[in-house]
Design a protein that fits this description.
It is found in: Cytoplasm. With about 425 residues, this protein is α/β, with parallel strands linked by helices. The protein is built from 8 helices and 18 strands. The protein has a 6-stranded mixed β-sheet with strand order 10-11-9-12-13-14, sandwiched between helices. The protein is elongated and about 100 Å long. Mean pLDDT is about 80; it is low at about 185-195, about 225 and about 335-345.
């Protein structure tokens, strides 16, 4: 089964907790704090493996969770950092954050890596908090939570050449006779339900990868037919071959077919129209094809090479394959996805985010939320009074107390952070 788009949940490892410990060695007076730091949590890393050509591995495993760091140890020993979780993906994989729509990574080259979710840092042991004012601190930090994300993983096949055209114009037959690929061939629309790849050997020590993309129809860019699912695969190709039924066996006009397919490509992505195009005028063994070809050449009026071929009798295939191979030699590898646009960076002053938001629940409780305050909360060990006092000071410094007073909070009101509740005290 060909899988080219999946939604996945990834969770990087949490940092290990810092330790509260003291030196208690014989003959060592005033040993002092000796709690070590926790280890860092593991990152979630996607790594390209050129041996893969589908996202099938994600079909049955959609949760990826890295290990947490080891807790700190006595005698100031640092906990072990967790190893990263490395997930293999095929070349051409794009990773998108589902919540923000931002592209996290675009992976195209063998063994290329990208960190999808960062592991949390280890919490600091009580050794780190020693000071002249407090030489023996009785608290340590919990590990920082690792990032968690819902991501969309898309595969855009990396093929040198893409075959596009209406259903039943002979794309699968073309692929089967010029390569060792054996796609399903039948005389009905949408026989091809997934892209097929084949390696074409031109016979003069040159070769290229050819992709047969499922038939496009009018409106494909808006989701009509099957083509919209696979238009993304055209983005990676360096040359586009239009396969056109020059005999008009289904009563369609060849030139109109050409115009409609180009329009679908343009509507999907304007940049696709900059790719070199070659026209394979197929089914030239059928009656009426010669007249249609002449008429087509008169109408096209563009500098696009047209090669009369017959995938059934194999006539003209050598010429078009040599022409495509020559064209590929003039285009850099992976050029389509490495296009760079010059962008000017404009720096604007932005007021620093407070790090928290205060809302009211239906029961009247004040709810304090936000990434920064929630991270501090999770890194606090509420089993130790000194750690609780430190968290209270951090909230006061951030301005939480003042904001609560401005919102009308009074003595005895309930304050909620995540699933925990506190009482507001003036």
């Amino acid at each position: 089964m060909f899988v080219d788009q999946v939604s996945v949940y990834v969770k990087a490892g949490d940092g290990g907790n810092g330790l509260v410990a003291y030196r208690r060695e014989k003959y060592v007076p005033k040993g002092g704090p000796a709690g070590g730091d926790g280890g860092n949590g593991g990152n979630v890393i996607f790594k390209v493996d050129e041996g893969l050509n589908t996202l099938m591995d994600f079909r049955y495993n959609r949760h990826f969770k890295a290990k947490r760091g080891e807790n700190g140890m006595s005698k100031g020993q640092h906990g072990r950092n967790a190893a990263p979780l490395v997930v293999s993906v095929p070349p051409g994989t794009t990773v998108i954050d589902e919540d923000t729509g931002q592209v996290i990574a675009d992976l195209t080259i063998h063994e290329q890596e990208a960190i999808i979710a960062n592991g949390g840092r280890g919490g600091r042991g009580n050794t780190r908090f020693a000071s002249p004012r407090n030489p023996a601190p009785d608290f340590a930090e919990n590990g920082e939570p690792g990032e968690e994300k819902n991501i969309k993983v898309e595969l855009k096949l990396i093929a040198d050449v893409g075959l596009v055209g209406f259903p039943s114009v002979g794309k699968s037959t073309f692929l089967s006779v010029v390569s060792a690929a054996r796609p399903k061939i039948a005389d009905y629309h949408f026989t091809t339900l997934a892209p097929n790849l084949g390696v074409v050997d031109t016979g003069d020590q040159r070769s290229f990868v050819l992709a047969d993309l499922p038939g496009l129809i009018e409106g494909a860019h808006e989701g009509v037919g099957l083509g919209h699912q696979f238009l993304r695969h055209v983005e990676r190709t360096r040359v586009i071959i239009h396969v056109i039924d020059m005999a008009g066996t289904e009563g369609r006009d060849p030139y109109e077919d050409f115009q409609k397919i180009n329009n679908e490509l343009r509507e999907y992505d304007e940049k696709l129209m900059t790719r070199p195009q070659v026209i394979a005028a197929n089914k030239m063994d059928m009656p009426g094809s010669e007249e249609n070809l002449q008429h087509f050449k008169e109408q096209i009026g563009e500098d696009i090479p047209v090669y009369p071929v017959s995938a059934l009798t194999k006539e003209g295939l050598r010429d078009i394959l040599f022409a495509v191979a020559d064209l590929l030699e003039t285009i850099p590898k992976f050029a389509p996805q490495l296009e760079e646009t010059e962008e000017k960076v404009v720096y604007r002053y932005q007021k620093e985010d407070k790090g928290f938001v205060i809302t009211r629940d239906d029961d009247g409780a004040y709810v304090v939320s936000g990434p920064r305050i929630e991270k501090l909360f999770k890194m606090t060990d509420f089993n130790r009074d000194e750690a609780i006092r430190r968290f209270a000071r951090q909230m006061r410094t951030m301005g939480v107390d003042e904001e609560l007073r401005n919102r009308g909070a009074e003595d005895g009101d309930t304050i909620r952070i995540l699933q925990f509740e506190f009482e507001f005290v003036e």
